[in-house]
Amino acid sequence: MAADRPPRVLVTGAGGFVGQALVRALAKDWNVTATDQTGLGFADLPGVTALPGDLDDPELIANLAATPFDAIVHLATVPGGAAEADPALATRINVAASMALIDAAAAHGNCPRVLFASSIAVFGDPLPAKVDDVTPARPMLRYGAHKAMIEEWIATMSRRGAIRGLSLRLPGIVARPLGPSGMKSAFLSNLFHALKAGAPISLPVSADASCWLLSRHALTGQIQHALALPAAPADTRLNLPALRVVFGDLVAEVAQKTGSAGSLVRYAPDPAIEAAFGRQPPLSTPRANALGLRHDGSLAALVAHALADL
Amino acid sequence: MAADRPPRVLVTGAGGFVGQALVRALAKDWNVTATDQTGLGFADLPGVTALPGDLDDPELIANLAATPFDAIVHLATVPGGAAEADPALATRINVAASMALIDAAAAHGNCPRVLFASSIAVFGDPLPAKVDDVTPARPMLRYGAHKAMIEEWIATMSRRGAIRGLSLRLPGIVARPLGPSGMKSAFLSNLFHALKAGAPISLPVSADASCWLLSRHALTGQIQHALALPAAPADTRLNLPALRVVFGDLVAEVAQKTGSAGSLVRYAPDPAIEAAFGRQPPLSTPRANALGLRHDGSLAALVAHALADL
């Protein structure tokens, strides 16, 4: 990158929950181009160029292809539940448009850093007794398969020297906004909203269910750290450090911090949801740890970070 | 499948070198629908329905989706060299159209058998000292990455019980017709044509280069065998048995069988071609062997089968 200008980064899905915070964090040091279908409210940030559009539109890809970005953070996706509901759309965005975007990024010959928001959905369910850096992908959801497929594309293009790619496998991120998200895991965030409002909520998992969580605060920190890594790891697939949380403990902590009653929570396990999101075993991430990536550190910090976003 | 009608099979790429022979072989026992852009000369076969079209055309996919096939053999592809020359076309056919085809096949709920023509290109280069059933995919070509991505889709859709899929990793197939094939490995077949014609030929590999080969005769036998397997293997990725051939030996055998002079062959190794097609180590395929799949058996048989196709 030229020394006389800030480096250029493209963020897709920039109007989303993670994208919004990431763009604001990056705007300090980067020249940011932010793209999404809607939600690009960055008028107050002078270093941010908002480029609304649909990744499925070849004109938007051609537009993005015109700029030699130093880095790309590809967050845009059709998530799990939405992908099952509209498989054709999900294939177009999660696979075809993602490949086109990566090809466009690679075309300038400047070997840009490409961070791809992959997902623990590549592991499918049931999970083995322990998940670590060598656990093989075995998706069950269309969404998980799409993520595994783009991980392969990122790995191949990185091996060819066309990009410096890294597929970051995201766990559950809390607390996302209320409302339809297309995510099967929306209940993870809805818990925070309900207890803050003092409203009753029914969870589709049991009290002793366990799952891997990360706050948006910790995730954007990890992404910023990954963007600044001096060298791209040879293995481009990376499980992110996340806190393993038991739901009973999570409910108690959220209740305590919101001054609400844990008895507002009813457990009504749905076997499919429990299998997909409530049976997450111990997670070991030595590779990401060695690269300096960190989770929230404690349940108290995770909940505090999550509540700060509501 | 109903007992009162022959089972229905769809063959894509049916106008190609392998497809032509496969359709003729299957027509004895199957109700065959054959699709390709061109080359569908099956008017003499009463049980074959020719459906010309482009897999990139949603109308063709919709057409194919109307029939509940008992099995699909998906041969159509944009091969290695052609995929590097036109990445966008290759993504559309090798990835997007392949996913749409598999989804269409799965939509009837009859869990069809799906045989996908994958490729040893998933292994990339350089290859390890030995390749066996657990050697990981590590593609270098776009084509190889596309194949690995669809292998993932086949594996996921099979795991979900939507299809009974099997990804057959094809080695070099000889002897394909002369003319532009879009294949980086075209020289493998051109050798047979040149010596049969008594014409000189320059090979882009050295005399001690080694590669995995299969005749069309042996490959169509393997595909028919795979279609008849009573159960789909849990691991849907399958390396096909192939004969490992040293080029000097191959040249001698072809020269002997064609009554031509081996001295017509000049070795002019191209480092990239030699790396991709001339450094293939011993290949061990216990899983495919156990399923009853067989290669040509000997160099003499391989060359005889290949010459019979010229």
TrEMBL record, chains A, B:
Task: Write down the InterPro entries for this protein, in alphabetical order.
Answer: Epimerase_deHydtase, NAD(P)-bd_dom_sf
Q: Which residues form a coiled coil?
A: none
Q: Which UniProt keywords apply?
A: Carbohydrate metabolism, NADP
> Per its UniProt record, what SUPFAM superfamilies does this chain match?
NAD(P)-binding Rossmann-fold domains
What is the annotated signal peptide range for this record?
Answer: none
Q: Which residues form the NAD-dependent epimerase/dehydratase domain?
A: 9-203
Which Pfam family, just one, is annotated for this protein? Answer: Epimerase
Highest taxon, organism lineage: Bacteria
Mind telling me which PANTHER family this protein's record contains?
Answer: ADP-L-GLYCERO-D-MANNO-HEPTOSE-6-EPIMERASE (PTHR43103:SF3), NUCLEOSIDE-DIPHOSPHATE-SUGAR EPIMERASE (PTHR43103)
What is this protein called in UniProt?
A: UDP-glucose 4-epimerase
